[in-house]
Amino acid sequence: xxxxxxxxxxxxxxxxxxxxxxxxxxxxxxxxxxxxxxxxxxxxxxxxxxxxxxxxxxxxxxxxxxxxxxxxxxxxxxxxxxxxxxxxxxxxxxxxxxxxxxxxxxxxxxxxxxxxxxxxxxxxxxxx
Length: 128
Prior knowledge:
Order of helices and strands: HHHH
Radius of gyration: 17 Å
Distance between the termini: 21 Å
Helix content: over 70%
Number of strands: 0
Strand content: under 5%
Number of helices: 4
Shape: elongated
Number of domains: 1
Largest sheet: none
Oligomer: single chain
């Protein structure tokens, strides 16, 4: 799970840098996914380094993923409107809608992995 946290952080960093590049280095808000991405990487490394605090680090990363998944609520309606419309100019900042949707989806998938991981760990403890 720790390595997955680092990978998710890396994906968010690449997402932010990719969209920042795509906007021609002009929209600094495209770098927003880099911040939680960096935090995920730090939390993953912390969990790998300090096994006694692994549970704390993974719970913090799950809360961060929950917060990040709310961006899906912001971006998805705009993305659907953009895809379903015949005119592309109905949505302001279409790249932002795509980026927030992708960020939210990444965080939601990670959050579901965290929940499954926590449930599996509890089941293992009860068996022992």
